[in-house]
Amino acid sequence: MGSLIKVWDIPGGVHPPENKTQSLQLPLGKAPLPPSLTLPLNQHIGKPAKPVVQVGERVLGGQLVAEAEGIFSARVHAPSSGTVSAIEDRLIPHPSGYSAPCVVIELDGKDEWVPLERCEDVNSLSKSDILDKIRAAGIAGLGGAGFPTSVKLNPRADHKIHTLILNGTECEPYITADDILMQTKAEEVVAGSQLLAKLLDFPEKILIGVEDNKPEAIAALEKAAEGTEIQVISFPTKYPSGGEKQLIQILTGEEVPSGQIPASIGVVCQNVGTTVAAYRAVRYGEPLVSRITTLVGEALETQRNVEVLLGTPIEFLLEEHGFNAKKASRLVMGGPMMGFALPDPSVPVIKTTNCILAPTKKELPPPQPAQACIRCGLCAEACPASLLPQQLFWYAQSEDFEKLEAHSLFDCIECGACSYVCPSHIPLVQYYRASKGAIRLHQQEKEKSDRARRRFEFRQERIAKEEAEKAAKREARKKAAEEAKRKLAEQGNDSAPRKSVDPVADALAKAQAKQQSPEVQRAKLERSLEAAKSSLERARQPLEPSEPGVEVTDEQKEKQKARIKQAELKVQEAEKKLQQLTQDAQAPESKPEPEAKSKPDTKAKSDDPVAAAIAKAQAKMNMSPEDKLRSSLESLYKRLSKAEEKAAAAREAGDEKADALQQGVDKLKQKIADTQKELDEQKPSTVAEPSSASRHNDDVASQAIERAKAKAAAMETMSAEDKLRAQIESVKARLEKARERLANAEAEENENVEAFRTGVTKLEDKLQQLTEDR
Amino acid sequence: MLDLIVQNPIVSALIALGGLALVFGAVLGFAAVRFRLEEDPVIQQIDDLLPQTQCGQCGYPGCRPYAQAIANGDAINKCPPGGQATINSLADLLDVEAPTLDAEHGEESDVKKVAYIREDECIGCTKCIQACPVDAIIGAAKQMHTVIVDECTGCDLCVEPCPVDCIDMLPVETGLNQWKWDKPAPIEERPLNIIASDRGTTGEAA
Predict the structure, then answer these.
(1) Does pLDDT of A402 surpass 70?
(2) Same domain, yes or no, for B147 and B168?
């Protein structure tokens, strides 16, 4: 069948000794249960899985141990029954020799399993059911990279897949894991291919590519594929035909464009081992907990393929196969071309462990010392990706990342063909790997520094904006202060203080408002005393009925007591204030009280400044004329007695001025008599007819009263309650702001914290007062 | 008209030249306004090379101000976080000799660091938040603060203002994502035992 299909060739390639027969002498074996399994959480490309078991928990075979995190991730299952002994960082099989989070399971040897969900009729399943089952089984590419299979089998809608390729090439020397799988499980490979074909909407071609050095596998596959649309294609052995892009080129003649995935040219490529695992996951519900691994190398007594549980320590496997540590030059995971030396034999087998190579020094000698490049160009001839390894080598040496990228470093598949052919034994691939890593890190750093730059610039902008806002506020405050000053100056001329927006005038008004008439003050205090008393009453009330029967918790009682105490305190305070007020009022009672009473047109509520002004003006007017006359009379009497004294003294001394003095005394007497007469006249008429002397005075005062009244009327349009409410609102707003400022100050540990705090308390007091007024 | 041009070739030439001068002058004037550069493009290039730690060790309040200063002729060896690599690339860009790092501004450290707040000791003073040039510390007054590790540039600026010294600079953990293969040692530095008599020391199968 294969002969009917044209196969293409790839550029370059090498023919290293195959060394595949050693491990094929024995049939596929099964590794015994190890005492414990170490399951790394990141056996695939992508995000590590998240453990879902606890330390000490008993797990059964096939039980989910770690859940996939996102799409680019794969689940991890327990390969056998046992107890989770640790979830911690362990050495993992990775060239870095780093540790990574692992779930460690101590096996109990019973190998008990969770019930598996079998599916007798695979064809009846829908596409999404199949994908779900594959995803749930935690299947990742078993060929070497470990790409989550469910992602690869779910290509983007705009990628129409016309060819499904199954990779049974296994081009790397020594490795025979896929070979033995195809020999023993050919039917499953075919069934799996059909399953994947269904997932990909039945591509036109389903090809299984196998190198011609595996005749038994080819025969088995052809037998199994008989009567199906699946074609088994064999092609000449050459390393690295098994690379995904290389195999696609061999079987279709098309090249995957640089930087793109095979699906972009309508091809999906899957490893045969992965295909079987996917089939078993769908058909038998088996999660991916074991794989076939080649154990090979002269340092082992038995070289063969074994089916091994994931997580089995490589140490344990080697012991089982008679490992002679003295003979071995090193331990390699993967093949001699692309594998890497294991940091420690204690690391576990993972999903991508296709081979463990334990070669002797003779078999795989340590690399020879590198010599200078002689520019022979053999590497360029060997490169399967048609790159220029020599150029890349120079640029890698000088770390010229731009040039490396320009020469398509990232198309290098790291197959090692160039290093293999290099007569100077230059470890070319290692240069490329190092450069790739450096470029990747460089990009990461660049991204990070760009982000830092953006954040820094954003912060600068924000700070500038805040500064600007602060400056604007400062400016506004300054303006307001100037305005206030100006207004204050105006007020110096104007007798009645005006209610204005600026704070100074506000303060002034407030001070004047405090000089409320005692009547109002008393009324207010009496009201608040009343309120305090009633609240005391209320506070006492609930306690009494509770005493006879119903239980009262201590807490409640405490609260009650506290409330009563508070109320009592309030009552006391109110009483004290009232008392003080009456005392205050008693002394000057005669003066201010009649005034307050004598002004029926003035609002008794004197907490507004206009009314206060009116009161002042009227007080002035009321003083005249009787009182004025009386006071002038008094002063006249004083002056008269003095003048009489002086006149007497002068007479005794025989002074010539005595006569003049006597005259003055007479004049004063006359004046007193006049004043007395005037006063007597005044008495009956009192205020009704002010004297001519006081008329002028009266006029000025009444003018002031007129003015003030007009203002009062303007303010009166707002009802008293509204005004009060507005005041409360504004005080509340100010309190809010003050609190904010205090919080800020506290946060910044400002030295003005105390000032802010007193401001807040003052405002709080004021607010309380206002609310009480209401 | 034609006659006039033919008769007074000099005058017509002058008019033609003057007209061209006016047209080109207008085009150039428009271009000068329309395509005006806000700042020297070299500043952006320099800024791109600086490590953006915003640490201020150079004496300027951030990387961009230092880039401006370099463009105005300041020395290029004042950036310890960038180290010799940054100095070299700056020298390359500006076509000058690469000096060594000015020790006055600090030493180059091989290990990248990030700030770590010992959270149970934090008193929530917000001082470090105000100090952080990239807003990488979150928290509020009287609340515990913490560092967004991914955004921290390791600039050290938050360590000084902390009143309770609860900020440590810890080396960045290098996980698998940061790992890369080592570059092989340069050929000149490797032992070259390729003479036949030396073979025994390098391996029997040469």
Answers:
(1) yes
(2) yes
